[in-house]
Amino acid sequence: MPELPEVETTRRGLEPHLGGQIIRAVMVRDARLRFPVIPELARILPGLVIRGIGRRGKYLLLDCGRGWLILHLGMSGSLRILPAATPAEKHDHFDLVLENGFCMRLRDPRRFGAVIWTETDPMRHPLLDKLGVEPLTAGFDGAWLYRVTRGKKTNIKQTLMDGHLLAGVGNIYANEALFRAAINPTLPAARLGRERCGRLARTVKEVLEQAIAAGGSSLRDFVGSSGKPGYFQQQYFVYGRAGEPCHVCASSVRLLRQGQRATFYCPVCQK
């Protein structure tokens, strides 16, 4: 599933192509996404100007003046800018056609993505209003992490992935941040002291920022808005490397399951 770096990479790629553009038409080839695409979009959106594109967690927000499009890439979706006349392929379900002759096209093989319209504050939408702090903001630091983990019975990896606490940190980047912070993913969150909370908050930010700079990761069929893949997977220390030697100590990277998600870690480097 595209995580925060992939979504932010997409946002940055789309922004120069969408900002200030007038919507000419909407084309829905298959409305059966995670939530059905409402047919009223074909009436509502034409003529509106896209004022900007933001992000909240793993959701993209297109400001259309009188309302917002809330977009989610699902498990394997991508958004690309293409000439509007480009023939659609099998999994191209939604086009936002612009007056300049281009379109923003949603490709979503598994149809777990979302295209949602709201005319109220998108931050109060049920999908967004309970999301936690953004990890790349000043609101997320060691002091915050120490405070919210007091009394926590869950392990630290699942705590990092709790979207009600921290928005957008998925499985890949939780694994990588914990390795770089030298923290075992099975450790109860409440056992982290102030120093380790500070170190972990820093590594979460570092991993996310480096992944964004690399264009995200290319798992399944994620690509950015330009159609190019991300390359952060070339920098993985542990993710997907079960049985391979640790890049730091040469011990074998281990695999276990936490909350039905794969966890990769080094038993020597991470305590």
User: Under the CATH scheme, which architecture of the largest domain would be assigned?
Assistant: Orthogonal Bundle
User: How many independent structural domains?
Assistant: 2
- Mean pLDDT, nearest integer? 93
| 3D shape | elongated
Q: How would you sum up this structure in a few lines?
A:
The chain is α+β, with helices and mostly antiparallel strands and 271 residues long. The chain contains 6 helices and 10 strands, in the order αβαβββββββααααββ.
Fold and architecture overview:
- The chain has 6 helices and 10 strands, in the order H-E-H-E-E-E-E-E-E-E-H-H-H-H-E-E.
- It is an alpha+beta fold and 271 residues long.
- Residues 218-226 have low confidence and may be disordered.
Secondary structure topology:
Elements: H1 4-18, E1 23-28, H2 41-44, E2 52-56, E3 59-63, E4 68-72, E5 78-83, E6 92-98, E7 102-107, E8 114-118, H3 142-149, H4 156-160, H5 171-180, H6 194-213, E9 254-258, E10 261-265
Antiparallel strand pairs: 1-6, 2-3, 3-4, 4-8, 5-7, 6-7, 9-10
Helix pairs in contact: 1-6, 3-6, 5-6
